[in-house]
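Entry, Tuesday afternoon. Goal for today is a structural model of the target with zinc ion bound, before we commit to ordering more compound. Inputs were pasted exactly as handed over by J.K., no edits. I checked the ligand SMILES twice against the vendor sheet because last time a stereocentre got dropped in transcription.
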Amino acid sequence: MTCYKEISCPTCGGHSIMKLGRSTRRVQRYRCQQQDCVTKTFMLEYYYKAYEPSIKEQIVEMAINSSGIRDTARASTLIKIR
Ligand SMILES: [Zn+2]
């Protein structure tokens, strides 16, 4: 039985992707091969939720609106502070 999973770049949506090893937590890392894409590597799931693109956007938006790190963490229950 063959399983096929289509992977696209989270930034440009391109399908020209290659595997690029694994993280220290053994999660597969990928690299976008589009010439003009700003994303170099990405993973499909992150251990630290703050690295996910949707959460990262929220953090940047709150930082622009002069929210502190603790205020940002309180607003989002998904973000862990160590
Ligand atoms: Zn890309």
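The chain has a mean pLDDT of 86.
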